Amino acid sequence: xxxxxxxxxxxxxxxxxxxxxxxxxxxxxxxxxxxxxxxxxxxxxxxxxxxxxxxxxxxxxxxxxxxxxxxxxxxxxxxxxxxxxxxxxxxxxxxxxxxxxxxxxxxxxxxxxxxxxxxxxxxxxxxxxxxxxxxxxxxxxxxxxxxxxxxxxxxxxxxxxxxxxxxxxxx
Length: 171
Ligand code: ADP
Fold this sequence. Notes:
With about 170 residues, the chain is α/β, with parallel strands linked by helices.
């Protein structure tokens, strides 16, 4: 399902954060999630980084949702766009897959994604939408057992439109 809106008010059980490797918050959706979720999320992120170091692109970790309606926040680091021949699509696929696998581990039913990598990280929205939708559709078909609802919460009309076009080409 595609929605235009703000992911911080999503009522999914888990929301996904397009984080950066330091997990220290930042701009874009990352800043919005930490502002709305309060300091507990950042505290947990700091503990994770102390334990396992910075999070590489394509990986994901999970924290509680703090003050958010969502019970969990899954933080994943998408790839920075360097023109398309630096493994960007593979890393973006991995970000979605690792997030979905963490949701399965926690027996989560519903999950909301933002458009990972298409803001500050510069990944073209339509190209990212194709990767995102294909990865989620395949996961739901072949691997999901608890996850039964995936929502893309897209912040601006251009991104929403890119996902709509990409979705219409898949189904
Ligand atoms: P990245 O660094 O992975 O590119 P950004 O946060 O810069 O992440 O952007 C990713 C996408 O998230 C962009 O399309 C941006 O417009 C969008 N975004 C920003 N704030 C929110 C929000 N509150 N809810 C959903 N999406 C958001």
